[in-house]
Design brief:
Blueprint (H helix, E strand, L loop, with lengths): L7 H6 L14 H5 L11 H9 L2 H5 L12 H5 L6 H16 L4 H7 L1 H22 L4 H9 L2 H32 L3 H6 L2 H14 L1 H5 L17 H25 L9 H26 L10 H25 L5 H19 L8 H19 L1
Helix pairs in contact: 6-7, 7-8, 8-10, 8-17, 10-18, 12-18, 14-15, 15-16, 16-17
Bound molecules: iron/sulfur cluster (2 copies).
One iron/sulfur cluster binds next to α2 and α3.
Length: about 375
């Protein structure tokens, strides 16, 4: 029996949906979306689910994650119902619903709560970092006020909470999505082939390229490296590259001070992509170049700025380490860089960042299904 939530229409507005109830079901949005076909049908169907309050239909849908938020559908909607924003709001709703602690719900729905929690985590991470350097004068002063063990253990508990929350969220999502697949679709599919298709999509963004491809699209005139798919690619691979470089640095320690060491070269290249992608994304949002960039929520701004600051401060540290400049400013930059980088990891389960796991999972199941059609 379908579960109906009569309060969904007002609830989803807290996640960023606008006047989606103005929709009169004309189907323009689905027709214009470059990612839809006979089997994959959105965003109109989701607006129907939303108006009827069919929340389970939404949470069980992999199609929700196939949308790349290009905004083409919103540009063409005759009722200004904002189907693109509505899809983005539903992804926030899904992330918050899969996550078990309720922290994501609070952070998405309320800016003051978002600010307080972000600052609290930053403060805690700052203190946590001093527990790794207990001989610093500031550390000793701090431990007189708050015992070392309290700060250190709180940091460990919160990081564990993040890890467990994301594992829980992925499990819940996988169970819901596979429940909506037919047995035949699950059993006959080739996992390896589906995984390779996901890898290819992440490497090429071919599906994303099909968005914004119409003749009259604003992006048609822009060079490829300024187009949204490449901005997304740069941010994603820049962040992954930096994560790998940081882990290698941590494992190799001393060689990380040499900028020609392989892990440092990887970090430098990844940092260039991250800063390039985030700079363009921030610029597009400031200028509101298209409808897709016209509405930016506080959490999206913070996410982008954190990534940008992590990249810029990373370069600063690389240069200062290369020149062995032991200045106070470098220690402050190190603190900012580490707090922001750790906060990005910490907020992974509780922010839109979680889509980095949910989208590949949905793509995997989508490719499983599409193989059965061939
Ligand atoms: S284009 Fe607008 S009015 Fe038409 S179905 Fe889509 S959301 Fe509804
Ligand atoms: S935002 Fe773009 S990808 Fe998403 S439903 Fe609209 S047209 Fe399709």
């Amino acid at each position: 029996m379908a579960i109906i939530d009569p309060g969904f229409k007002s609830e989803i507005k807290k996640y960023g949906a606008k006047d989606f109830t103005a929709c009169y079901n004309c189907g323009n949005c689905t027709a214009v979306c470059g990612l839809t076909d006979k089997e994959v049908n959105f965003p109109r169907i989701f607006i129907r689910h939303g108006i009827l309050g069919q929340t389970e239909e939404i949470l069980r849908s992999k199609e929700l994650w196939l949308c790349y938020a290009c905004g083409d559908c919103s540009e063409t909607c005759p009722r200004q119902a904002g189907p693109g924003d509505y899809m983005a709001a539903m992804r926030r709703y899904a992330i918050a619903s899969y996550e078990p602690t309720g922290i994501t719900k609070l952070m998405f729905k309320s800016n003051p709560v978002f600010i307080v929690l972000t600052l609290f985590f930053a403060l805690l991470l700052g203190f946590f970092l001093f527990t790794l350097k207990p001989d610093y004068e500031v550390s000793r002063w701090l431990f007189n006020i708050l015992p070392y063990a309290v700060i250190h253990n709180m940091g460990l508990v919160i990081f564990s909470l993040t890890g467990l929350s994301i594992m829980w969220g992925v499990t819940v999502m996988a169970l819901k999505l596979t429940k909506s697949m037919k047995e035949q679709e699950k059993s006959k599919s080739n996992w390896v082939s589906s995984l390779m298709m996901v890898g290819k999509e992440l490497a090429t963004m071919n599906r994303y390229k099909t968005c914004d491809a119409e003749e009259d699209s604003f992006w048609k005139e822009q060079p490829w490296y300024q187009q949204p798919w490449f901005v997304h690619w740069s941010i994603m691979w820049g962040f992954i590259g930096l994560l790998v470089a940081t882990v290698l640095d941590f494992m190799l320690k001393d060689p990380a001070t040499n900028i020609w060491w392989p892990s440092r070269i990887l970090g430098t290249i990844a940092g260039i992509f991250l800063v390039f992608g985030t700079s363009l994304a921030i610029n597009y949002r400031f200028k509101k170049v298209t409808k897709a960039y016209s509405q930016t929520r506080l959490a999206d701004w913070v996410f982008l700025w954190f990534l940008w600051i992590a990249g810029i401060t990373g370069f600063w540290l690389e240069v200062s380490v290369a020149f062995q400049a032991n200045l106070l400013i470098n220690h402050v930059i190190f603190l900012i860089h580490t707090i922001i980088s750790m906060e990005l990891v910490l907020l992974f389960a509780f922010s839109k960042f979680a889509h980095a796991i949910y989208r590949p999972l949905a793509l995997f199941l989508h490719f499983q299904k599409s193989q059965n059609k061939n």
